[in-house]
Model the fold of this input.
Amino acid sequence: DAGVTQSPTHLIKTRGQQVTLRCSPKSGHDTVSWYQQALGQGPQFIFQYYEEEERQRGNFPDRFSGHQFPNYSSELNVNALLLGDSALYLCASSRTGLSEAFFGQGTRLTVV
Amino acid sequence: EDQVTQSPEALRLQEGESSSLNCSYTVSGLRGLFWYRQDPGKGPEFLFTLYSAGEEKEKERLKATLTKKESFLHITAPKPEDSATYLCAGVGAGNMLTFGGGTRLMVKP
Done:
């Protein structure tokens, strides 16, 4: 079982650019959630996808958008990047009806 | 609004010196309280889920407990390899994890 996989592992972007991060959930999981973790802080919930629809959203602007594909994999898109978007972006997968969420290794995004 | 607070923010222990990490929570309709371990630059690694007050779970040198307002992660006779950030998170009616700020644990040989 490969677990939750994210790509890329590191990324450097310039302010104003757009970025797409990708996540493949753990086998058997159908729900994908995205979190942003600033240095030295706990992860903050961005949104959750189930059955290809956004089911829940945290307090993040519309510049953050996502998508879930029929195979349950997911993308996080961030438009008009700001310096403050620099963080570790984490993907977590879970199975509907169960609470346990498993995380990928994250994508470290640096905006310069 | 759901809230999770962890203390202390940082903890230094000598190898073999047992201690406890605290997680206070206000989560509406709590469905589970989670503990994760996170190493620098990596994703959180799942440790435990606790579902109801009075529940306890153990894994090697770690033991997690839950009350109606708090959870504790007890570390017995820690080793240097236990050094990491320990994160606590609650899941409520909103079906999303609300994390605390974490406790950075350093165990010195």
Summary: Chain A has a mean pLDDT of 94. Chain A touches chain B through 26 residues (CB under 8 Å). The two ends of chain A are 36 Å apart (CA to CA). Residues 5-111 of chain A form a domain with the Immunoglobulin-like fold (CATH 2.60.40.10).
